[in-house]
Amino acid sequence: MCGVLRERSPVSDRYEFIDSVRFDDTAEYAFPVTFMCERVGVSKSGYYEWRNRPKSATAERRDRLMLLIRKAFDDSEGTYGHRRVHAQLQRWDVQAGPELVRLLMRRMDLEPCQPRPARECLTEPDEDARIPDLVGRDFTAPAPGMKLVGDVTYIPTSEGWLYLATVIDCCTREVIGYAMDDHYRTPLVIQALKNAQRNGKVSAGAVFHSDRGSNYTSREFGCFLSEQGIRRSVGRTGICYDNALSESFFGVLKNERVNRVVYPTRERARRYITRYIEHWYNHRRLHSALGYNTPAEIYAAHQEMRLAA
Question: What's the CATH number of domain 147-308, 3.30.420.10, 3.30.70.120, 3.50.50.60, 1.10.510.10?
Answer without folding.
Answer: 3.30.420.10
